[in-house]
Amino acid sequence: MAGPRQGKREKIDGKGARILIVEARFYEEIADALLSGAVKALDAAQASVDRISVPGSLEIPPAIAIATEAAQRKRRPYDGVVALGCVIRGETIHFEIVSHQSAQGLMQLSVARGLPIGNGIITVENEAQAFARARPDDQDKGGDAARAALALVALKRKLGKRR
After folding, report:
1. Which one of 82, 97, 118, 130 is separated from 108 by 20 to 30 angstroms, measured CA to CA?
2. Active-site choice (5, 11, 94, 100)
3. What's the pTM?
């Protein structure tokens, strides 16, 4: 099993970036912790943030597709997205289905649309692991997902500049 994060968390300039957070509220307290870390990271980067909530992690990819298409039609596209949720292993194969399909959905959206997405859907064995990963003062996976989205936004901006 992997130990605690070894690298440092770099602050990324997100000034002017319009970021959408899509959060699954299935586990309310864990969702609150993930959201807190993500918002803190996005605020520190000076990004503007919109937020929508969905019931569970499987609903995150379609919600992103719906929201980003609507924003595009309104000519106010999002620069990136942060997906936040939690899947805790249970007694059935539902854990494998939800964790695999949500991750696959996010990857398909990101690659097909060139959309920077930070994946903050944590997959854990139990609640204790979930809280350790979600709390901003512990592993801060919500903040990590926000920083990942911002890093991809910065890369897209850098590579998209004309010379």
Report:
1. 130
2. 94
3. 0.93
